[in-house]
Design brief:
Elements lengths: L18 H18 L6 H5 L9 H16 L23 H21 L19 H27 L5
């Protein structure tokens, strides 16, 4: 786990370029906001559920890692990627460093898939919910929504742990 102090409030990015860059910039901003919520926490603090449902900061990171794979990694490097269990509980031997590293790898692979897509209107190769895969544009917007939701959850969990606030 990182020893860095929690960061203060960090406003959204000032990106107003092409559609793909703007969407990825906002998604990356939210991904980093979730990761930043682990700064300065021990593994135990980051994995301890902060609400009755059992949600923890590291549980959110594990969930988001699986969600990234499920929406973006459908045919990374030409290989079919199996659907990941995005509700899998934390294993006793999983550390914060391992989970954050896995999330960062998933983010890199996801961004590579997006950057390789010539047309954001192109349907994805699969959908984990719909019969017809949505467009890459829809997937990006959905992932912004999904990650933002969980960034908010991480904000609340972190505030409960040690009072730290900010994006």
């Amino acid at each position: 786990m990182t020893d860095d102090a929690p960061r203060g409030d960090l406003g959204p990015p000032n990106s107003n370029t092409d559609e793909r860059t703007t969407l990825l910039t906002f998604l990356d901003y939210l991904r980093e906001a979730v990761i930043a919520k682990t700064a300065g926490l021990s593994d135990q603090q980051a994995r301890t559920p902060g609400v009755a449902s059992g949600t923890s900061v590291l549980g959110l990171i594990k969930h988001l890692t699986a969600v990234e794979a499920n929406w973006f990694e459908w045919s990374y490097d030409g290989a079919d990627v199996p659907v990941q269990d995005d509700e899998a509980p934390l294993a006793a031997d999983e550390t914060a460093d391992q989970l954050i590293s896995a999330y960062r790898r998933a983010i890199r692979r996801s961004n590579e898939v997006v950057l390789a897509c010539d047309d954001l209107g192109t349907p994805g190769a699969r959908s984990v919910r719909e019969a017809t895969p949505p467009s890459m544009r829809w997937i990006l917007v959905h992932m912004i929504e999904e990650t933002a939701r969980h960034a908010g959850h991480a904000d609340i969990l972190r505030e409960h742990i040690d009072g730290s606030v900010g994006r």
